[in-house]
Give the backbone structure.
Amino acid sequence: MKSPTDFPDSYVQYGQMPLQKDSVRILVVDDDPSFLQLSLRLLESLGYREVVSAQTSEDALEELARHPFDVVLLDIELGQGIDGIQFSETITESYGTPIIFLTAGAEEQIAPRIDRNSTMGLLFKPINSTELDILISTTLRGRRAELALSGEKHSLIARIFDSMVEGVFILDAQRQFVYANDSLLRMLDYQRSELDGRFSNIIVSPRENVRHYARIWSALKSRGRWEGALSLRTRNGSDRNDWVSLTAVRQDGRLVNVVGLVLDATERKRHEEMLYFMAHHDPLTGLPNRKFFTDQLTRSLARARRTDHRVAVFFIDLDGFKEINDSLGHAAGDDTLKIVARRLRESLRKTDVIGRYGGDEFVVVIDDLKDYESSLKIADKLLLSLNADIQLRERKFRVGASIGISLYPLDGDSSDLLIQMADAAMYAAKRSGGFDYRFSDTAVEKIAASWRRYRSESDRTARKRQLLFQLIRTIGSNRIFAVQPDLFPGEVPGGEDSMPSAVLDMPSVWSEAYWRLLVFLREEADEDWQTLLPGMRVHLRTAAAAVGGGEVLHELLDELHRRRVRVILEMSERDLERLLNHNEPALQSLFRENIVFSIREATGVMIRINDYMRLPVDSFVLPSLDAASDSDQKMLMYMAQSNAHILGRRVLFDSVSESDFLRTVRGGGQDLYRGSLAGDLLSASDVVQLLKK
């Protein structure tokens, strides 16, 4: 058997940091040719240049006889019935080369055998490059210590140990210090003479449990190795957390020395955190992977059960992504996914969970919703961010998103079910043209049913289904500009029982509302009403679903046209966007001589100026502000108002309750307002009396 001191002087340089990888000699032994090729490329990418491969045990022994190696990577199953663990004993006895085992087997079957054979390390296939690099480095450092102990050139060994950044110490069989290198002395603030001959417990913190200390020595005697976190105490009495690796040195079966290696626990923790991050995150985008996301969702649901909050799951699939991959290649596709991941982070809070589910699919969990309405605002925000153009290789691409939304507890209480429901809703959004979001059918129907129950009870007790009207007045003259039917009686602002915007995507809800107004015009309006209708302006709230999803709206518009009523259709900017991009025929059906549009939530009216100029837009609806509003909000309102005037359009201020607000609106003579200041909801007869005046 070769003495460790017979190996080349290349071992001297291993005492320096970092290791000089290009001079480390590695032998890889595996019976799979494809794995050998993969291993050679992986080691080369890590900076190891002197790597040799062997496919059989005979080839491995020939290579070991021809050249000394610093470490052997050995497959446990070499084929032809050869056991790698048994073969490792031949290598150890003949050459003393440290071995790192490779296996695709189960840990519970392999680990006990590895411990009994006191090998240096174990890696599971497929090999993780970071784990491989760390294990090779750790193995070589442990080898340094063992070589130094058994060598005869003590002064050279001392120089090696003293050049190491890790702390190294040697104990005798009675646990007394034989040697401590310079790094350990600096770590613990001792002089060498203060440790020589002292028992090892002088550097162990009293915080450490006595039984734990005893278990460490028991492990050394039985297995020959121990490593783990250990609190060490410095000379001045302060404690520090370190990672300590202990190796037993035996002679004729007796324990004669213990070699200790001390690493800064902070650095080791950084490596562990890096390995954990790599195992739980997508390497391209840095977002949590599918497994980690699902675990986070499970925890969110458990928390929601305790706090009685709601949870929303957003399943996102990109629209237009295939065009980028086909025209510019997969590298451009990867860049697109990174951009989308960044936009998701910027659109959401740091506490929200975002994951890459696979391919061009992403998932989001919002776990502290107090009401379902909040999920709609988040969906609108995500669409606005994701549906923006992407610049790649001097070309612009329109990449958007189809989003499906499921809700806890409406859709279920398990992670798998909520993801499944959100996935189905996403496909519904994609089938309708994409670049939009949809709630699960279950969630929407339950929310709608809740709203219908509330409305029905409110109608019976307070309004008895009487059709009421809201007034829209001009600023300055305070004249009645238009009347607006209250199509959704019983609706209250906020709260679970109010009609959420999700319900506005249900054509049946809109059909019911429009049918009520149609019945009023045909059967309930008295003679005075019939006389006043020609020339009257009627302001109608509507949605994209109502335009393309039913005939009642068009029947109502025909009726109003026949009666020569001027109609103002109020639609949200998002709904108008949906019609402009994906449902041109439905939009064209609204182009009638008696119809103009009013656009709600239009603070960015200059963004789509070209599209808006294609439409007969009468006004933009802006929220009113109170005296407590900050200067930024007021500035945005003034800018939006100025933009509308530049386009030659008026502004309708919504929910105005304070007369002071009207006095602060600049150039408001042509603009309009509605809300409590414009008057309470009125019956049909009251409206007639006002219009007669």
Observations:
- DSSP finds 26 helices and 26 strands in the chain.
- The first strand starts at residue 25 and ends at 29.
- The longest helix spans residues 441-463.
- The chain has a mean pLDDT of 79.
